[in-house]
Write a structure and sequence with these properties.
Elements lengths: L10 E3 L3 E7 L8 E8 L10 E5 L5 E3 L3 E3 L5 E6 L1 H4 L5 E11 L7 E10 L4 E3 L3 E6 L9 E8 L10 E6 L4 E3 L3 E3 L5 E6 L1 H4 L5 E11 L7 E9 L29
Parallel strand pairs: 2-9, 11-18
Antiparallel strand pairs: 1-3, 3-7, 4-6, 4-8, 5-7, 8-9, 10-12, 12-16, 13-15, 13-17, 14-16, 17-18
């Protein structure tokens, strides 16, 4: 009886490549992927093959570094969040080397690809404000609140700084500077002191929110004010001088 043995142990992988694609809304769950590992041994000659996984790329972490095809036949990769936040948009490639320990099985290479397309944006809940100012306008009616949000998910979440620019004498802002983590809103208010120098009429202008540490467009807010205070509707040729300490009442249009 002639028995010919031809044992060529090999590691077998569920995939020989992993692809990651992340944009600004990426969540933590998108950072992890795994690969199952087995061997080409059949039942008659089965034995476990110990292995070690390694990579030289900073933006990849290997969750399971050592294992065997029997008790730990898989490993997981995780993209390093801190490294990702420092990387420019583009395509990246890396390799993970799986090396059998004490076995004639050849090393295997898992190719890793990453596409980054991260474009942070700021948003305002509304882009206009209108004020009607007259003798019955309340304090609340001379204010308009705006909320600032962004499109960043948990992976690329960061402090986005913004700046308010308003060149209108009759408008003031509750915050000239802010960021989307600690100051998510601002209030535009009518400057009551400035109204003393303004005639009745319609006024308009623009208030701008400018992102400072991201590449994004300026957010413009259109503001309008209609000033309609009551005015005297008569001209008297007389000078009225009260002769005693009584109240002097002047009556005119819309006045009592």
């Amino acid at each position: 009886i002639t028995v010919i043995l031809s044992l060529n142990p090999e590691l077998v992988f569920s995939s020989d490549a992993l692809q990651f694609s992340l944009d600004e809304g990426a969540e933590e769950s998108e950072l992890d992927q795994g690969i199952e590992i087995s061997s080409n041994f059949g039942p008659a000659f089965y034995k476990e093959i110990d292995w070690t996984a390694s990579t030289v790329s900073d933006w990849i972490s290997i969750i399971s570094i050592n294992g065997d095809t029997g008790s730990n036949g898989s490993f997981s990769l995780r993209l390093n969040k801190a490294e990702l936040q420092e990387m420019e948009n583009g395509e990246y490639a890396a390799e993970v080397v799986i090396k059998p320990n004490g076995s004639k099985a050849p090393s295997k290479i898992i190719n890793i690809s990453l596409v980054l397309d991260v474009n942070p944006r700021l948003f305002i809940n509304k882009n206009s404000a209108s004020f009607l100012i007259n003798n019955v306008t309340t304090e609340e009616q001379i204010k308009a609140e705006f909320h600032v949000t962004d499109n960043l998910g948990a992976v690329f979440e960061r402090e986005i700084i913004w700046h308010i620019v308003e060149d209108l004498d009759w408008i003031t802002s509750s915050s000239q500077d802010g960021d989307n983590q600690y100051n998510t809103s601002f209030v535009l208010s009518i400057n009551k002191t400035a109204l003393e120098k303004i005639d009745n009429g319609a006024y308009s202008g623009v208030v701008s929110l400018i992102p400072k540490n991201i590449t994004d467009t300026t957010k413009n807010i259109s503001v309008e004010m209609n000033l309609d205070f009551p005015e005297l509707d008569f001209v008297s040729p007389y000078i009225i001088v009260p002769s005693n300490n009584t109240n002097l009442v002047i009556k005119g249009k819309l006045l009592n």
